[in-house]
Write a structure and sequence with these properties.
184 residues, four-stranded mixed β-sheet, 6 helices, elongated
Length: 184
């Protein structure tokens, strides 16, 4: 994660002391790894520096956060097989290319992430509880309207239109239910 460039003056500096504590120089307070994780999630630029040498320790802290995330049991991104394959690339002539490939692959995934989410939501829309409750309410109204009293001449034109609309709702609901069952 490179923090250098035109916006370097906007980089938040965290100093790591020998007692392993992190100090946020912009807020003048100590921070935890969870705070650093929040900086990452919010997209804020930062750099972790060794308090004595000034060496950049950002990668070490990020790897520590990843390690803790992997150990938390919320599912893993880096399986044993993936980690073993990554280790095999260290020292290999393809190491630089692998690094670029991973960066570009993640960037492409992030670009398409919103589109993927929309597709997933549209596929799961049929299973959405609010959609299902709306369908049930429409079906109940259709049944209720079937038992509504009618005038002796077959009901008013408005009642006939409502009855026809209820029938169409029932047909659409049955078609949607069939499509939902077919997609499972």
């Amino acid at each position: 994660m490179s923090q250098r460039g035109a916006g370097e003056s906007n980089v938040r500096i965290l100093r790591k002391y020998t007692n392993r504590r992190l100090y946020d120089t912009s807020r003048s307070c100590y921070v935890t790894l969870e705070d650093v994780k929040q900086l990452v999630l919010s997209g804020e630029n930062f750099q972790v520096q060794d308090s004595k040498t000034g060496n950049d320790l950002t990668r070490n802290i990020l790897l520590q956060i990843i390690s803790e995330q992997e150990a938390d049991g919320h599912g893993t991104l880096l399986t044993n097989q993936v980690l073993q394959q990554l280790i095999r690339f260290y020292g290999d002539s393809m190491q630089g290319m692998m690094s670029q490939y991973l960066e570009q692959s993640i960037a492409a995934f992030l670009e398409h992430q919103d589109r993927i989410r929309e597709q997933m939501q549209s596929m799961m829309g049929a299973a959405n509880p609010l959609t299902m409750m709306g369908r049930i309410a429409d079906q109940n109204m259709a049944v209720w309207n079937m038992f509504a009293p009618r005038a002796a001449d077959g009901g008013s034109e408005q009642e006939q239109e409502e009855s026809q609309a209820s029938s169409e709702v029932e047909e659409k609901t049955e078609d949607d239910d069939a499509a939902t069952k077919a997609s499972r």
